[in-house]
Amino acid sequence: MLLPARMAVLNYLSSVENADVNEIMEAMRPLYGKERQFTKDAYLDHVMSLEANGLCSLIRYELDDKDELSLRFAINDDGRAAVEKYVPAKYRNK
Amino acid sequence: MNHSANTARASLADAKMKQVNKKFRITGLTTGALSGLTYGIYTTLVLVAGYYEPLVSAVGILAAPYVCSGLNDLFAGIWLTIYNAKKGRLAEIGRTINTFPGKMMVLGALLGGPIANGAYLVGLALAGAYAIPISATCGLFGALFAWIFLKQRPTKRVVAGMIICVSGAIIINWVKPEGSPNFTLGIICALIAAICWGLEGMLSSYGGSMIDTDVATNIRELFSGLVDLVIIVPLVGGLGLLGGTLSAGMPVLWLAISGLSAGASFLLWYKSNATVGCAIGMSLNVTYAFWGVLFCILFLNQPVTLTIVVGSVVIIFGAILVTMNPLDFFKKGEA
């Protein structure tokens, strides 16, 4: 069974230095891409809620090629501790 | 790209970022305030359902509240399942229960649902609107359990808020209303509800913030309703009453609407907690005590007494002080 989407987002952030929503979605597309909940709005909501709960931080924001706002998030210590504690080892990215 | 173009893009990014932050914050404050209003509506509608036969003449103090609580939570769970199905998130329910934070949430749902919701409704049945502000002291118990079990020392502000909450509860109980022989028992039930909600909040600190709140509320209401109806109602000898209520029609209709407002309230509350933080979210949600008492006075002929008005205001103020510094509302206002 797959991880719940929000947990999977945090799990992915624990494997990279930082990422914006488009990169997160690209990384999750192979497993979650076919689902109806796979929308940019939903994933922005996931990552911003994780930030509001103190599990990741907004490190920078900029305009992308299409002049859309791109928010870059990085996992922090609390987020990493949560992944280690609650995400089963078989899901974790090396 | 030259320097001035870069600066222009940077300030455009700043403006857009400000917009996003503002929208996020307004969403958090609005959902929090609406969660209080809808919880007040839920409280009033459950009481309305209880005025119909066969609930109104049910024997014993447990059967009718648990039939109401079970049907209400089950309806809330069904409404939330429909909502999540529309959003394409049904698979998330199984995935979430499969994780450790999800399992803690189910445990919390058992405390917060069958025990706390049931006790809240027994309290309402026995003590009327007086039970509402008493149950709002759950923030106090949440802070107390975090102190005992998670070693999170409360600040002076939190302790002051706790003392104010307790004083408010004493004011409410100073004069017992006439003609309610089980008034004190009702207040004790409301306290049990507050204690279990406090514990539920503490359990959600085990990884609960990694879980999608829309899915969490769905699991909570569905589990709570099923456990109420399948286990508790038969235990308290309420199966006949459940059958009678279902075939009576009208009370079920009211409980379906109260379930809608309870489901909406939890959805909005968790959303608020996940956007503006738990402290502000909880303080806004606690305003349900104000709405609940107001609606009972307006629509259910709850007599207005000095003790209920003063006590409610004191408890709401104390509960807000426990969860947040009221000055923060104004400080971050311009963000």
From TrEMBL, chain A:
SUPFAM superfamilies: Winged helix' DNA-binding domain. It comes from the Bacteria. This is Uncharacterized protein. It comes from Allofournierella massiliensis.
From TrEMBL, chain B:
The keyword Transmembrane helix applies. Belongs to the EamA transporter family. It holds the Pfam family EamA. It comes from the Bacteria. The chain crosses the membrane at residues 26-52, 58-83, 104-123, 129-150, 157-175, 181-201, 222-246, 252-270, 282-300, 306-327. GO terms for cellular component: membrane. This is Putative membrane protein. Residues 185-323 form the EamA domain. It comes from Allofournierella massiliensis. Keywords: Membrane, Transmembrane, Transmembrane helix. InterPro entries: EamA_dom, EmrE-like.
